[in-house]
Specification:
It is built from six helices and three strands, in the order βββαααααα. With 178 residues, the protein is of the alpha+beta class. The chain folds into two domains: 57 residues, no CATH class; 92 residues.
């Protein structure tokens, strides 16, 4: 183990800390500008940092945390409705519309998937699903699922709130948002 202190180019001191295990099998080196201004304070800071690095080298942190349980869309729907539209005191018609869109379109199509497994590709597939070819006037109208996804029927919002609420760890962002 060694600590070398040298002047830093733009003022201050650079510390070069090299830590080696007693058996010589592992080594770690850090070169960094000291966050203090005097040479003696930089030496004290470097020695403290050296102790921390040596402890980390001898006992690397163990990641024994169990993986977080991620709910499916079907399981998350009630939590979403209670925690967001109702908690934000949205109009009853808005809450009813979200419930209907979730119940009729999103849960049947994606309810079995875990929230972290729903990707943008799934949303695009849902929007492109041909349920209705045309309306009474013969023009193309987006089907309910596409309208739900485009108007923010809840899927993107579910995912974004699930990520925000830490229900989904490392989830990919979805383009559709309320």
């Amino acid at each position: 183990m060694s600590v070398t202190i040298r002047p830093y180019r733009r003022g201050g001191w650079e510390v070069d800390i090299r830590v080696v295990t007693p058996d010589g099998t592992r080594e770690f080196r850090v070169r960094k500008r000291a966050p203090v201004s005097s040479r003696s304070a930089a030496a004290r800071w470097a020695e403290g940092r050296e102790r921390v690095l040596f402890e980390r080298l001898m006992k690397p942190p163990q990641d024994n945390a169990p993986p977080k349980e991620v709910p499916t869309l079907r399981e998350f729907v009630s939590r979403f409705l209670d925690g967001h539209p109702r908690a934000n005191r949205q109009k009853p018609s808005g809450i009813a519309a979200k419930e209907m869109i979730l119940r009729v379109h999103l849960v049947p199509a994606l309810g079995h998937k875990r929230l972290d497994a729903i990707k943008s590709e799934d949303v695009q597939h849902l929007k492109g699903r041909p349920e209705h070819e045309g309306g009474e006037d013969g023009q193309q109208h987006p089907d309910g699922a596409q309208r739900a996804a485009e108007e923010g029927g809840g899927l993107g919002r579910d995912r974004s709130h699930a990520v925000h609420d830490h229900a989904v760890a490392g989830a990919e962002d979805v383009d559709v948002v309320l």
